[in-house]
């Protein structure tokens, strides 16, 4: 609640509104609060609940007032905290078919077959039923708030009658809304931190992330197919040497006293582990001599995978849906390398799909045309 | 003009006279009896081992299908007459038989608690 005028002047600049997720959401506010919200002095039609800019609201309540006009209904909705008018447009489509719908009951013919015209009538009837409410019905309405003739109202973008014979929907709503208020609406949005995030999206924050993106970039630019760890370790040297001795991250505090080479080694190992977990690199053969394959650039693996999918998609068993990821994975493991991880498999499949060499038929099935 | 909002009150708050006349209320109870001739119904509910009754004037919601013993929700203005005493002049009377009353009560309390906390917060500021 911010009834003072003084707060209005303190409203955040409209440039920043989009940073607040509530701005683009349908806010489930109490009607009492919707009625009290201050309109923005920068952009009419936008309101402020505390410091949150509100563009549209979502309301559930009992219809306690009804007025019908040629083009729209005006329903007074009561959620137990306030009553607000909501302007609900009638559906153009329905009006054109208005007469046949009413007559549908008399023309029902029991032929037993599927009759599209009949079904359409039923559909329209159902639509009619859920958009025509009487006093006492429960209405859910979403849409932007407006102020017309000094009265706050909701211009419904969606509205429908809620069938709630045992109040389950209303009770769930009543339990949920206070939580939303406590967790989101009543918490002030940190504009400054939002801006910080915005600036930070392009620059990784932690050392590990920096190291990770550094290695990824290097592997991509140089199109590295395989590497041994000591070949790449040098890449991270600038990162480690640039760390100030009084580093902030806890991980670093522990190792500040160790030599730079140890830091470098630890960082490199973690980075490599991360890349391996993401499936970006894998070891074809586990042996003393560590050789890492770069999944993205492993042409042989791509070829093997494609061939497996092409061959197996011809089989009757997989003809309809294509091959399942796990089936592809186990075939690849048999014919290529035991150590291909599921994540690495996903990377290969994604890259093949991007090149339109394979097609996904479901979330986890692939085929070749 | 829009009517005042029907705020949830427990039947025992209404029957004890804690709610002012003229308030718009929303409450619940089992339909105990209905006299169409007088347009009068009685909703009863149990709380802390006593029965509480709320009289309802039903002229505005008739005709309706009275199911004795079923749970109803009523929304209306609290009015007092010399002859009948305090009664809810119903604008909405819905049968909600099968409603989870415990859950409904906790939802009402949850909402009240939220507003209570919020107002407390504003006052301390």
TrEMBL record, chain A:
Keyword Kinase found: no
One Pfam family linked to the record: STN1_2
Cell compartments where the protein resides: Chromosome, Telomere; Nucleus
InterPro entries documented for this protein: CST_STN1_C, CST_Stn1_wHTH1_sf, NA-bd_OB-fold, RFA2-like, Stn1, WH-like_DNA-bd_sf, WH_DNA-bd_sf
The keyword DNA-binding is annotated on this UniProt entry: yes
UniProt GO MF annotations: single-stranded telomeric DNA binding
GO biological process, one term: telomere maintenance via telomere lengthening
Matching CDD domains: hOBFC1_like
Gene Ontology cellular component terms for the protein in this record: CST complex
Domain of life of the organism encoding this protein: Eukaryota
Domain called Stn1 C-terminal: residue spans: 206-369
Family matches, as Gene3D superfamilies: CST, Suppressor of Cdc13 homolog, complex subunit STN1, N-terminal domain, Nucleic acid-binding proteins, Winged helix-like DNA-binding domain superfamily/Winged helix DNA-binding domain
Name of this chain's protein: CST complex subunit STN1
TrEMBL record, chain B:
One Gene Ontology cellular component: CST complex
Coiled-coil blocks: none
Gene Ontology molecular-function annotations: single-stranded DNA binding; telomerase inhibitor activity; telomeric DNA binding
Family matches, as Pfam families: Ten1_2
Keyword field contains Nucleus: yes
UniProt keyword annotations, A-Z: Chromosome, DNA-binding, Nucleus, Telomere
Main subcellular location: nucleus
Keyword Nucleus: yes
InterPro entries from the UniProt entry: NA-bd_OB-fold, Ten1_animal_plant
UniProt GO BP: negative regulation of telomere maintenance via telomerase
Subcellular location: Chromosome, Telomere; Nucleus
Sequence similarity: Belongs to the TEN1 family.
Name this polypeptide is given: CST complex subunit TEN1
């Amino acid at each position: 609640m911010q009834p003072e005028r003084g707060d209005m002047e303190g409203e955040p600049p409209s440039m920043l509104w989009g940073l607040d997720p509530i701005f683009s959401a349908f806010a489930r506010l109490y009607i009492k609060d919707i009625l009290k919200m201050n309109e923005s002095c920068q952009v009419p039609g936008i309101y402020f609940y505390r410091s949150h800019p509100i563009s549209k609201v979502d309301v559930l309540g009992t219809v306690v007032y009804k007025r019908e006009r040629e083009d729209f209904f005006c329903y007074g909705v009561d959620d137990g905290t306030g009553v607000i008018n909501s302007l609900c447009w009638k559906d153009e489509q329905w009006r054109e078919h208005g007469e046949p719908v009413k007559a549908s009951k008399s023309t029902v013919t029991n032929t037993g077959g599927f009759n599209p015209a009949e079904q359409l009538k039923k559909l329209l009837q159902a639509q009619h039923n859920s958009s025509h409410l009487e006093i006492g019905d429960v209405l859910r309405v979403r849409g932007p708030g407006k102020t017309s003739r000094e009265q706050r109202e909701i211009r419904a973008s969606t509205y429908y009658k809620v069938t709630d014979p045992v109040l389950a929907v209303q009770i769930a709503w009543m339990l949920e809304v206070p939580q939303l208020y406590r967790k989101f609406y009543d918490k002030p949005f940190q504009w400054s931190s939002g801006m910080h995030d915005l600036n930070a999206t392009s620059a990784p924050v932690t050392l590990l992330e920096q190291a990770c993106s550094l290695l990824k970039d290097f592997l991509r630019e140089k199109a590295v197919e395989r590497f041994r760890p000591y070949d790449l370790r040098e890449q991270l040297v600038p990162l480690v040497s640039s760390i100030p001795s009084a580093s902030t991250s806890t991980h670093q505090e522990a190792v500040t006293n160790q030599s730079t080479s140890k830091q470098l080694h630890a960082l490199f190992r973690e980075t490599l582990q991360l890349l391996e977990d993401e499936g970006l690199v894998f070891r074809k053969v586990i042996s003393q001599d560590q050789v890492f394959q770069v999944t993205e650039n492993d042409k042989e693996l791509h070829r093997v995978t494609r061939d497996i999918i092409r061959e197996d998609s011809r089989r009757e068993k997989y003809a309809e849906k294509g091959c399942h990821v796990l089936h592809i994975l186990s075939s690849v493991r048999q014919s290529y390398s035991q150590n291909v991880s599921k994540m690495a498999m996903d990377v290969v499949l994604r890259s093949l799909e991007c090149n339109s060499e394979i097609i996904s038929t479901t979330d986890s099935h692939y085929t070749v045309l | 003009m829009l009517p005042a909002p029907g705020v949830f009150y427990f039947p025992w708050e209404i029957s004890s006279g804690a709610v002012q006349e003229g308030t718009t209320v929303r409450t619940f109870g089992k339909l105990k009896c209905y006299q169409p001739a007088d347009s009068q119904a009685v909703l009863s509910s149990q709380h802390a081992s006593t029965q509480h009754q709320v009289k309802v004037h039903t002229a505005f919601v008739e005709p309706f299908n009275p199911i004795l013993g079923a749970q109803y929700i009523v929304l209306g203005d609290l009015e007092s007459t010399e002859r009948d005493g305090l009664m809810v002049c119903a604008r909405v009377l819905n049968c909600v038989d099968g409603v989870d009353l415990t859950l409904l009560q906790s939802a009402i309390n949850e909402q009240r608690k939220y507003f209570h906390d919020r107002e407390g917060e504003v006052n301390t500021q």
